[in-house]
């Protein structure tokens, strides 16, 4: 069990630690919604290119269908004590149209290249517009560390 006696971190430290986690972690929860079918949430592998989160899933998945109808998504890293939530709009890239650098980085991180699979995969790109990061109650105030796509100081 983790110690819950946390000390409030400055925003710059939360930003740095969030960027470190985005670069290092493997999984992200992806929440989408469809007007007729409601919410849908799945864990996906992801890579971070310094500006956007890149994920990959089957071209006929509920996640891709939902994003094509409603591109607004919420992403969350899996640690509930060290919460990181990202909001933005997802763009779909069929595996034959994904930018090579993004697909190559994804393949290098996971040792698996979805572009070689059959049936086809779709890459999802999310440029965060809002990022919230906090550890426990002491950091609830000031948990927004990015607003309208700009990191807060």
Automatic annotation (TrEMBL):
Domain Pyridoxamine 5'-phosphate oxidase N-terminal intervals: 19-134
Question: Which keywords annotate this record?
Answer: Oxidoreductase
Highest taxon of the source?
Bacteria
User: From which residue to which does any coiled coil extend?
Assistant: none
Pfam families in UniProt: PNPOx_N
Xref: InterPro entries: F420H2_bilvrd_red/Heme_oxyg (IPR052019), Pyridox_Oxase_N (IPR011576), Split_barrel_FMN-bd (IPR012349)
- This protein's name: Pyridoxamine 5'-phosphate oxidase family protein
> What species does this protein belong to?
Streptomyces monticola
């Amino acid at each position: 069990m983790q110690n819950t006696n946390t000390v409030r971190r400055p925003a710059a430290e939360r930003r740095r630690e969030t960027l470190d986690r985005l670069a290092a972690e493997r999984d992200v929860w992806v929440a989408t919604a469809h007007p007729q079918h409601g919410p849908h949430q799945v864990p996906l592998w992801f890579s971070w290119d310094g500006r956007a989160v890149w994920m990959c899933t089957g071209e006929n998945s509920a996640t891709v269908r939902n994003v094509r109808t409603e591109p607004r998504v919420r992403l969350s890293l899996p640690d509930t004590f060290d919460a990181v939530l990202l909001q933005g709009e997802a763009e779909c890239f069929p595996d034959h149209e994904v930018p090579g650098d993004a697909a190559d980085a994804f393949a290098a991180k996971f040792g698996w290249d979805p572009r070689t699979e059959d049936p086809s995969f779709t890459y999802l790109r999310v440029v965060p517009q809002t990022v919230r990061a906090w550890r426990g109650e002491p950091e609830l105030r000031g948990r927004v560390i990015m607003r309208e796509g700009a990191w807060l100081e």
